[in-house]
Design a protein that fits this description.
Elements: H1 4-11, E1 21-23, E2 31-36, H2 38-43, E3 55-56, E4 62-65, E5 70-73, E6 78-81, E7 91-94, E8 100-104, E9 107-111, E10 117-122, E11 129-132, E12 137-140, E13 149-155, E14 159-166, E15 172-176, E16 179-184, E17 187-192, E18 198-203, E19 212-216, E20 221-225, E21 230-234, E22 237-242, E23 248-252, E24 255-260, E25 265-270, H3 272-276, E26 296-297, H4 299-307, H5 312-320, E27 323-324, H6 330-338, H7 343-355
Parallel strand pairs: 26-27
Antiparallel strand pairs: 1-2, 2-25, 3-4, 4-5, 5-6, 7-8, 8-9, 9-10, 11-12, 12-13, 13-14, 15-16, 16-17, 17-18, 19-20, 20-21, 21-22, 23-24, 24-25
Helix pairs in contact: 5-7
Length: about 350
């Protein structure tokens, strides 16, 4: 099963049988299609402890997994793929050339014809995350307790190129154009391959942790999710899609797939572009504001204003009319988000530094 597409072609016909259940949860323009539920699994006497990983095959089937067994899911049902694995699957990804790669402990493995995991690449740490880019693979530290969490590009010859490192675990990594989007704690960030710049794109409340990112390349919409809420981001504007569920994300055709492995629930949301696109604000020209105040604002000044319950609009007006000396390093921005500083304020801080 090294080349998964050959196996999927056969599995594709196993369960293209029944129609999809539909739910109307938010808007007439959105279509919610339940592809899997715990009841559906109970009806076919299938007990699975899914891991937090999902991918899309070349045949547009969903690839799910337990720690020792892969499954394929189509519109009509779910079926085991191949034999049980002699090993332990922590995550997986399908490469750009359509090979299934599995992370097991501190190795990236392939699956041989007997169902055994064959180690191909030794990883810097154990149970790292794995993500497929357009032409390369990325691995990242997602375990808690590591002092320096890094993202690596796997170059030719199985060599690692460290792209950057931060002090918090990295939950999700997705390539987008000339950037790499990543989520850590409550922040969504971008890393620019060319200038190595890291920017905050969106920040949630400190008690919300972003678990997964997915990109709709057709409409340039970035979706990200916590355990219970799904958001969309485009042109510096964040929209909530639903607060009914969350989980691991992937785009399948024109719809967003949301997979909650703990509750054995998988749903596809179609029609996102009809809801999001009209509400996306166009990028505005940044007007350089005069600094009239003699007071110099720092990161601590902003946190103090947050603690004093000033509104975002009030704080942004103060930023735009003051001298500033902000520290906008990656770790400082993460610290700001952990102090409940909103993405709008952080963006204003970054613009003030650029204008300075």
């Amino acid at each position: 099963m090294t080349n998964i597409s050959k196996t999927i072609i056969t599995a594709f016909f196993i369960f293209w049988a029944s129609s999809v259940m539909s739910l109307s949860l938010k808007s007439d323009s959105l279509r919610y299609e339940v592809l899997m539920s715990s009841k559906m699994l109970q009806d076919i006497n299938l007990e699975i402890n899914f891991i937090n990983s999902i991918d899309i095959t070349a045949n547009n089937l969903l690839l799910l997994s337990s720690t020792d067994q892969f499954y394929v899911l189509g519109w009509g049902g779910i079926s085991p793929l191949g034999a049980k694995i002699a090993g332990n699957i922590s995550c997986y990804s399908i490469t750009p050339d359509n090979f299934l790669m599995v992370v097991s402990k501190n190795n990236i493995c392939r699956i041989d014809s007997l169902g055994n995991l064959s180690a191909q690449i030794k990883l810097p740490n154990t149970e790292m995350g794995l993500s497929a880019g357009k032409h390369a693979m990325f691995v990242f530290d997602q375990s808690k307790g590591i002092r320096k969490n890094a993202v690596y590009l796997i170059a030719k010859g199985s060599k690692f190129a460290k792209l950057f490192e931060i002090t918090t675990p990295i939950n999700s990594v997705v390539e987008m154009n000339d950037s790499l989007l990543f989520a850590t704690k409550s922040g969504l960030f971008s890393f620019n391959f060319k200038n190595k710049d890291i920017r905050l794109l969106s920040a949630l409340r400190n008690d919300q942790e972003i678990k997964s990112i997915a990109i709709d390349t057709t409409n340039d919409i970035v979706c990200f999710s916590t355990d219970s809420v799904v958001y969309a981001f485009n042109d510096s504007k964040t929209e909530m899609i639903t607060n009914k569920f969350g989980g691991m994300l992937r785009f399948l055709g024109d719809g967003l797939v949301v997979f909650d492995p703990e509750h054995e629930f998988l749903i596809r949301i179609a029609g996102l572009e009809d809801i999001i696109a009209p509400n996306i604000q166009k990028k505005k020209t940044v007007v350089k504001n005069k600094r009239s105040s003699s007071v110099t604002l720092t990161n601590s000044s902003i946190i103090k204003m947050i603690n004093e319950k000033l509104s975002d609009d009030q704080i942004i007006k103060i930023i735009n009319s003051s001298n500033v000396d902000f520290n906008m390093s990656t770790n400082s921005v993460i610290a700001l988000t952990n102090q409940n500083v909103s993405s709008a304020i952080i963006e204003a801080m970054a613009k003030a530094i650029e204008n300075k």
